Amino acid sequence: MVSITKDADEKEISALRASLNAVDRQLHQVAKDMERAQIRDYIELLNRPFRLIWRNFLSGTARGVGIALGFTVFAATILYVLRLLGALNLPIIGDFVADLVRVVQAQLEGKMY
Fold it and tell me: Which ranges does the record mark as transmembrane (predicted)?
C-alpha cells in the first residue's frame, strides 16, 4: 500500500516538474521576444519625453538634409543631360531645351531674393 502511494507521489512530482519546465521554456521565449521587440527601449523613451523629442528632431533634420542633397544631385544631373540634348540641335527638342537652360541660367546669375 505504501509503494502505491509512493509511486503516485513520484508520478505527480514528475508531472509537476514537466509542467514547470514547460512554463520555464515559455517564459524564456517571451523574454527573448520582448528583447527582440526592444520594449524596454520604447518604455524608456516614453518615460523621457525630452529624449524622444530630441531624437525625432535629429532624425527629421537628417531626413531634410538628405532630401535636399538628393534633389540637388538629381536636378544637376537633369540639367547636364538637358544641356547635352540642347547641343545636339534637335529640331523641336533642341529649342525647348535651349530655352529651358537659358531660363535656369538666368535665374542662377540673376537677382538673389
Answer: 64-82
First to last CA, the chain: 103
101: CB partners within 8 A, 6+ apart: 79, 82, 83, 86
DSSP letter (8 states) at residue 90: -
Q: What is the pLDDT of residues 35-76, one digit of tens each?
A: 888 878 888 888 999 998 999 999 999 999 999 999 999 999
Residue 106: all three cell numbers together: 538666368
C-alpha cell at 53: 523629442
Amino acid (one-letter) located at 49: P
Residue at 20: amino acid letter: L
Q: Cell 536636378 appears where?
A: 75
Global pTM reads 0.48
Q: What confidence score (pLDDT) does residue 72 get?
A: 95
- The pLDDT score that the predictor gives to residue 111 is 60
* Residue pair 52/45 in contact by the 8 Å Cβ criterion: yes
CA–CA separation, 113 and 106 (whole Å):
14
